[in-house]
Amino acid sequence: MRKNGTSRIRVTCHACPLRLKPCFERLEDAELDFLEQFKTGELFLERDSQIVSEGTSSPHLFTVLEGAAVRYKTLEDGRRQVIGFVLPGDFVGLQSAVMEEMHHSVAAMTAMHLCVFNRNDFYQLYREQPKLGYNISWLAAREEHFLGDHLITVGRRSALERLAFAICRLHQRARDVGMATERTMDMPFTQQDMADALGLSLVHTNKTLGRLRTMQVMSWHARRIEIHDRGKLLEIANLEPEPPTLRPLI
Amino acid sequence: MRKNGTSRIRVTCHACPLRLKPCFERLEDAELDFLEQFKTGELFLERDSQIVSEGTSSPHLFTVLEGAAVRYKTLEDGRRQVIGFVLPGDFVGLQSAVMEEMHHSVAAMTAMHLCVFNRNDFYQLYREQPKLGYNISWLAAREEHFLGDHLITVGRRSALERLAFAICRLHQRARDVGMATERTMDMPFTQQDMADALGLSLVHTNKTLGRLRTMQVMSWHARRIEIHDRGKLLEIANLEPEPPTLRPLI
DNA sequence: CGGCGAGTTGATCATAGTCAAGATCTGTGG
DNA sequence: CCACAGATCTTGACTATGATCAACTCGCCG
User: Fold this and answer.
1) CA–CA separation, B14 vs B20, rounded Å?
2) Closest alpha carbon within chain A to B127
3) What are the pLDDT digits (tens) for B84-108?
4) Of B33, B128, B194, B246, most Cβ neighbours within 10 A?
C-alpha cells in the first residue's frame, strides 16, 4: 500500500493534523519511521459506518485522525450501553490486537479519517520500538481511567450529575483536540447515544437536559452544546477544571 | 532486598503457587530472570489494608499471588463504586506506573500475598523484555474488557441480572485460580461490596439475593456461596459457560 | 409537501432507594 | 466458656428516581 522510498515525506505527514496539537507528545524520528512502516494506509469512513464489531477479530487497528465514534456493547434484547466516546488521537482495536476478539463495537458518528495498522505487525512494535509499546500501555491505562470514571458515574451519580459530568469531560477532551471552543461544542452524538452512555432512558435524559437549561447552566440544541455557566456545571459534576495533559499518539 | 547470586533458585519460585495453575502462560527463562531482577520483594498484608490509594502515586507495582481485593472509587460525599474485584494473577498499579497517579484505590479484603515491583524500573521492562511489555498491554486489555462488561451490567441490567452476572463471572475467575470449586466459593467480599460494585443499595442487593435463593438458583450465607443451578444462573446472567483462557502472568 | 430522525413534554408505573428495626455472626476479653 | 460489641445480614414499610407509554414539534432533505 506504500513504497519505502517515499517514507521520508510520509513520516512528517503521519497523523499530521493531529501531531501539531499541543496535547500530543513528540516522537523520535526512528519511531515515526517505524510507524510509517507499521501503517498500512488511511481510511475515510461515512457517518454510521461500523469500525469494529463485538465478537469479531479485526485484522486492523486504528488511530483516529478526525471524526468521532462511540464504543458500545449490546445485550441480546437490544439494550445498548455506550462504553465511551472516541475522539481524534484515540486508539481502536487493542483488544483484537492482543486477544482473540473485540469485546465491544465501535461505530462512526461523523465522517471519519483513520490511520490503519496491520494487526499482524503489532508485536513487532514491542520488539523494535519499546517506547511505542509503552505508549500503547499508556493509552490502555488512560482508557481504564475513563472507564472507571464512567462506572462510578453510571453506578452512583444522579441523572443530573451524570449529564454534567459526561458533558464536562467530553467538552474538555474535544477542546484538547480542537473540536470545541471554550463555551461551545458541535455535538457529534445524539441524546440517545448520551442516554445509552449514562444508563438512562432517552426521555429522562432529555428532561434532565431541560433542567440544566432552566438552571441556565447549559443547553443542547440542534447538535450544538452551549455552556453558559462552566463553574456551575463543574460543581454539579463534582469536578475540578484540569489542564490538558501531554499524551502519546500512536 | 534480594541478592543476585540466589536468583537461579528464586526464578523457579517467582509467583510459584500461581505459575503452576494451568490458566497462566509459561515464560522463557530469560523473562523469568528479568522478573527476578525487576521484583523488589514480596509483601504480606492484613485484611483491610490499603494497597494503593486514589490520587497518590505509589512507587510500587504489584502482582497478586494470594488473596482478594477490591478496586474502588469514592465521591466526596462517601458514595462508593467498586470498579472491580482483584484476584490472584492480577496486576495492580499500571496507572501509577505510566501516569502521574492512580485513579482508583485498591483495598485488601482478605490477607494477601503480593509480589512487589519497583515503578522506576517499569520502562526497562519494555526495553529489555518486549514480550513482558506486550503482556502488560494484554492485561490492560483484559481489564478494559472487564470494565466494559461491568459498565453494561450497571447501566443496562436489572438487579437480578446484575447479581447473576457478577456472581457467574466472579465464580469463574475464582475457579480458574483455584479459589472456588464447581459449586461453591468462599466469598472474600461482603454484600456491601457487591452492592457497591453493582450500583445497588445494600438492602436491594440483599433482597435480590433472597429472590435467587427462593428460586433455588444460588445462596450466599456466612461468607459462602453455593450455586444450586448453574444453568439457570447463566441464563439469568445471559452468559455462555466459557472455558478459561490462557493468560500472561507478570 | 411529506416523511423521517431527533428532540420535547405530560401522565402513569415500577424498580430500586431510604429508613427502621431486629437477627445472626464473629472476634475479643474476662 | 460465656458475655458483649461491632459488623454483617435480613425483612418490612414507605418514598422517589427514573422507566415506559404516548403524543406532538421541529428541522432537514428528497
Assistant:
1) 11
2) A130
3) 999 999 999 999 999 989 999 999 9
4) B194
